[in-house]
Amino acid sequence: MGAAEAERGDDVLTVTIRLKLGPGGCEEDIDRLAALLAFLGGDPRPVPPSARGPGLHLRIDPRARAVYRDRTEIVLTRREYDLLLCLAQNPRQVFTRRQLLDQVWGQPYTSPRSVDVHIRRLRAKIGTDVPVVTTLRGVGYRLGADCAVEIVEDPVWVWPNG
What is the pTM of this model? Predict the structure, then answer.
């Protein structure tokens, strides 16, 4: 986020915030700002899709165990949800099948190919236009680089307009 300025006049506080928009995006900053404005009773201006940057945008609501792509809920099984949440909580980490079995399934006794099946189903449900999970041959899986996933922890959050 950029610089912030504030002016106080009579009963009104005016705050100006400058955000740098461009490649690499700051979607998370924009979403948090919109949520803050909504919480404070402000009227956030619409965020144009071009300002959000390219790629897939997912929201995970752990309290509801729900996943949304744009404004549409994606119905996932328990394992698919847990798998996506695990990858989203560790976006740059590469997991082997065994590590995913330990963390998501809770035990390593299931066949490692079960991870492959769940990854394939997760990809199919979320969409194949942008890879949500990247396969690193001979190593394992990680969250896709072009997939922006936000884990929404606070009970009050809004969808940005756009």
Answer: 0.63
